[in-house]
Amino acid sequence: MTFSERLAPEAVTIDERREGTSFALPFFVFQGARDVLTPPGPARRFFDDVDAPVKDFALIPDAGHFAAFRHPGAFLDLMLTKVRPVLDHSSAPRP
Predict the structure, then answer these.
(1) By the 8 A CB rule, do 30 and 68 touch?
(2) In 10 A of CB 31, how many CB atoms?
């Protein structure tokens, strides 16, 4: 946690919208429903502002900020059901 404590002052000053909200590639937000570092409400509002060819938002129940590590099965399921189909479709040969 001492490493995380050093990141905290910089982390609270990040303005994701300053980086832009328009992306030419798919955009996914998968996070814990109980994330206190990136709360679901503000994350969803940012997601709603994003313009991307494909986008999806999902909360992993009973998970916090490290949802992908603490609930790897749920995270993998989202990757396989939400991301992989987009990748499979985009890599298909085009006529």
Answers:
(1) yes
(2) 24
- How many angstroms separate the CA atoms of 19 and 16, rounded? 5
pTM above 0.85, yes or no: no
Q: Which pLDDT tens digits describe the chain residue by residue (95 residues)? A: 565 666 666 666 666 777 789 999 999 999 999 998 889 999 999 999 999 999 999 999 999 999 999 999 999 999 999 999 998 876 555 55
* Calpha distance 12→44 (Å, rounded): 17
Question: Whose CA is closest to 29, among 72, 65, 2?
Answer: 65
Angle formed at CA 17 by CA 78 and CA 87, multiple of 5 degrees: 30
The label of the residue with tokens 């991301």 reads: 83
Q: Which two tokens stand for residue 18?
A: 């300053």
Amino acid type, 76: L
